[in-house]
Each structure stands twice: as structure tokens, then as C-alpha cells.
Amino acid sequence: MSKKNLLIIAGVLVVLAFVSQWFTQSGNKSKDEKIGQPILEAALVEAFDELILEDSKGVVRIKKAGDTWGVQEKNNYPVDMGKMMELVGELTQTKIASLVTKDEKRLAHFKVVYRNSEGGDNNTAGTQLTLQSEGKVVFKMMAGKKRDSKSSQANMPTHSDGQYIRIGDQKSVYLSKNDFILETDPKEWIKSTLFSIDKKEIEAVQFKSKSDSFELKRAEKGKELLVSTMKENEEIETYERNSIESDLESFSIEDIFESSLVKRSDLELQSTVTVNLYNDAPLSFNVYRKLLEDPIGPPKKEEEKEYIYFVEFMEVSDLKADSVWNEVQQLGKQWMFKLEEWKANRWIRERSDFVKEKE
Q1: Most CB atoms closer than 10 Å: which of 160, 221, 277, 296?
Q2: Do residues 178 and 164 touch, judged by C-beta distance below 8 A?
């Protein structure tokens, strides 16, 4: 074989070796980064006892004490377990779509620089999620920028097509096909549904306010709730009656306040409501309003005044072990509950709200 041919063969072998090494490294790289693997290992679900979320707006810590999970920023008020487990489930089911970069200099661009350990700020850090067990970090992730899709048509808006994330202390940026909703406002994590009852079990609902007192009542179980003193020319306002039943099927609040911190002299009683069930004790609650005062501005006209609304549950004695009121009774010993204005007004009612003349 000529010297020229030997040189050609040697050159080809060098190229093949280079290509082989490149593919091997590429394959190892994919394997090392665990593309296609879940973001959170299922084994860690039972291991952590604290979940922390932090961004530029604030921080929320959800911690387990015994068998109960509580929101620490709300003095360990019970967490919305459904919402928390939905987030954890999303982390265990969402798989890493691809590796974006291993260039440390690009972390800031994708907003995945950790705040506390690396000095991340509003421009370089997104929302950090940390799981801890007995005070030690077992998992952490930074959810950074959203990836926008590109429209094939001009002038069409883009929409989110995944989110850039960073897992642990590795200097790598990955793409998740899911967008994560990571709320850091503590009130978004509280158990907001206080009780749920079957509307068929409602025997009567009594309303008492400064201007009126009346009752919605069933003639017998299985009949409709009607105003107990309806006249011959009157009929029920179905929408209003159904709204009351719907609220009692899932009674929810907006926020909580420790009772000891609420100044009673600032509260104005608007309504007292009593709910009677067929197979349970009656429950009564008061609806209050509190004027939002502006100490600097001029006095406001009545129609310009703003209020916040609270509900307080009265104590019920000798409840059965399976009473639907048990949890709200326990929570009511320590907390007052804030209602959205529209929901509070649903319980500040007059008889005329529930009846109309027959057509």
C-alpha cells in the first residue's frame, strides 16, 4: 500500500474516532442530565416535612406538626391540603423535557439564580421551591422565565410554552413543558373551605338583622326551602334561595385574623344567621363589617366608604363526633374569618330579597 493511501486511511480513522467520541459524549450528556425523568422523585414525597416558596413578593412556609400541615406565616393555620398535594403531584409527574444550557453565565438570563446563596434579585431570580426534612434541604428548584411559543402567523400573540427551571445546585438550565403556579402570598395557601354540607340536610336558615328577621324553611324533608311566612300572592326568588344553598354546600372565606388581634369596638354587627340541619346541631354565625378609615384624607360620603367583612362562629356545645361543624368550631376558637364583600352581602339580607309577586 502506498504512503499516500496510508495517510488517507489514517485521516479517516481520526475523523471516525472524533465523531465516535462526540456521539458518546452527547449520549452520556443526555444520560447525565436525566432527560425524561420526573422533576421530583416520588420517594421524596413522604420524606419532607416543610415546603417553602420564595420570590420577590415574599415567602410562605408550610410545615408539618404531628399529622397537621400549617401555614407558618398564618400562625400555623391549616393549609389547603388539596392545593399542596396538587403541586407536589405536578412535580412528580412532570418530566424534564430538555437541557437548555450548562453555561453558568446564562443562569441570570433564564432567572434561575438562587436568591440567598447566590445573590439573585428580581431580574435574575424567579420563584424558589424548597423541600426540607428536619431542617435539612432534600430538594430545591428555581422556576424561572416562561418560554414563549412562536406563532407561524405574523401579528399573532405568543403564549407560554413551558418554563425554564434549575434543580439543586447544578449550573444547568432545563426546560419543563409545564408552567408552575407557585403562590407566595400566605393567604392563598390557607384552608379556605370551612365546611361542606349536603343542601338536602338543611332544615332551615334564619336571618336576623337590624331591619328584619325571617326564616327559610322546608315544610318537610325533601321539600324546597321557602320563606316561612309567604303570602298567597308571593313566590320564592329561586336564584337567591339557590345561592344560599350553594354557599352552605361549600362555605369559603378569603382570609383569617387571630381573634385576639381584632378590635371589637371597630366591628359593626350586620347580621346573625342560624343554620338548622336535620341530623346535626344548629350553627349560628355573626357577620360584621369594619370601616376602612383614611386618617389623612377628608371625610367620605356614605356611598364612598369602604368596608371589610368578618364572620364569627358561635360556640356549639355537645357536638357529635361526626358533626360537620367540628372543624369550624375548633378554628373559630382562635380565628375570625374575612369574607369577600359580595359573599358577606349574601348573608346580610331582608325578607324582600327572597320573595316576589306571582306573575
Answers
A1: 277
A2: no
> Burial level of 51, CB count in 10 A (0-12/13-18/19+)?
buried
CA distance 253 to 62: 19
> How is residue 98 written as a grid cell?
430538555
16 vs 83: CA distance, rounded Å: 54
Task: Give the angle 76-285-80 at the CA atoms, nearest 5°.
Answer: 30
Rounded Cα gap, residues 151 and 258, in angstroms: 50
How far the first Cα of the chain sits from its last, in Å, is 110
CA distance 111 to 127: 9
Distance CA 33, CA 98 (A): 9
Model pTM? Answer: 0.82
Give the integer Cα–Cα distance in Å for 39 and 265. Answer: 51
pLDDT tens per residue, range 89-129: 999 999 999 999 999 999 999 999 999 889 899 899 999 99
Residue with cell 374569618: 337
138 near 47, Cβ under 8 Å?
yes
- Supply φ then ψ for residue 61, to 5 degrees: -120, 125
- Contact indicator for 256, 335 with CB cutoff of 8 Å: yes
CA 209 to chain centre: 33
